[in-house]
User: Fold Ferrochelatase from Massilia forsythiae.
Amino acid sequence: MPFRKEPSPPPHGIPLKSAIVLVNLGTPDAPTRPAVRRYLKQFLSDPRVVEIPRAVWSLILHLAILPFRSGQSAKKYEMVWTGEGSPLKVYTGRQAALLQGALAARGHRDVDVVMAMRYGSPALADVLDELKARHVDRILVLPAYPQYSGTTTASIWDAVFAHYKRVRNIPELRLVKHYHDHAAYIEALARSVETYWAQHGRGDKLVLSFHGVPKRTLELGDPYFCECQKTGRLLARRLGLGPDRLILSFQSRFGRAEWLQPYTAPTVQQLARDGVRRIDVMCPGFTSDCLETLEEINMEVRHDFTSNGGQEYHYIPCLNDNPDWIDGMAAIVEQHMLGWPTRLDGEAREVQKRELEAGRAHAAQLGA
Assistant:
C-alpha cells in the first residue's frame, strides 16, 4: 500500500498544535431509508461489531438485515430528528465546541477540539486528514463511550491505526481508553440526577440502562460488563442509594443470541407488575442523547412500563451539553494531556520563544 503525499511542513519556527478528537458512534445523514441503509451497512460491516464469519454475515446483512431494517430504522430516526439534525450529532458538536472553551478557560488556548464519527460523517479519517493539513502534531482521541468495549472503543483504535498505515509523518497519539470510574464523570451523572429530582421529585427506583452486547463478549474477556457495574456502584454510592433503589440493566438486544442481562424492557415490565408506581430511567453509557435513548428508552420502554400498570415514567436526559459534564470532560482531557505544551499564557509564550531562539542558535552553530 503506497504512502500518501504529505502536506507541506509548517514554516520554520511555527509551533505545532495539539487537538482533541471527540469520537462518537455515528448517525445517518438524514432520517431516510437510503441514508439509514448506508449508515447501517458501514456500522454492521465492522467485524468488531458483529463477530460472525464474514461470508455468512455478508449474506445475512445484505439479504435480510439491510432490506428490512433500513426502512424501520428510518421511521424511528424521523421521530427523534430535530431541526438541527440528528440529536447525537448536534449534542456531540456542542460538546466539542464547549470543551474547547472550557480548556481555554483553564489556560489551554492552543488546543483545537473537533468532532468525528466512527461511522457516517464527519468521518474520522477525514477529520484526521484535516488536522494533518493544519499541522496538528499532537492528537488525543477521546471516545464518547465512558465504558470500554471491543465493540466500540477498540473499533475507534482500529480506524485510527488503519488510517495512519499510509501516513509517513504520524502525529503523537494518545488514546483515552475509558473513564467509567472517573470522579468527574460520576459527579456529572450524580448532579444530573439530583437536578432532575429537585425539579420533578424522586422516583421509587432509579434504573440505569446501558447498551447491551452479546454475553459471549464477556466470556471472551471484554471488560464492558464489569465497567458498567462499577459505574453503577459508584453512582449509587454518590447518591446514597441502596441496592433496593438502584437497578442496572441492558438495552438494545438484537438477534437470538444471549446478551448481557438483565434486559431493560422485561425489567421495567416486572417492576410495574410488582406495583412500583414510579421509576426514573437514565442511560449513563450514552453521553449524548440519540435514537437508543430518545426512541427506545423514552418511548418504547416507557410504553413497556405504563402498559403493565406503572403510573409514572421519568426519563433523565443524557449528559449532553450539561455544564457539569463539560467541566468533567475538561478534567479528563487535562489529565491525558499532561506534558503537552498547550498553555499559551504569557509565561509559556516566553518559554516557547526562548526555546525557539536556542534552537535557531544551535542550528547556526552547526551550519558554521
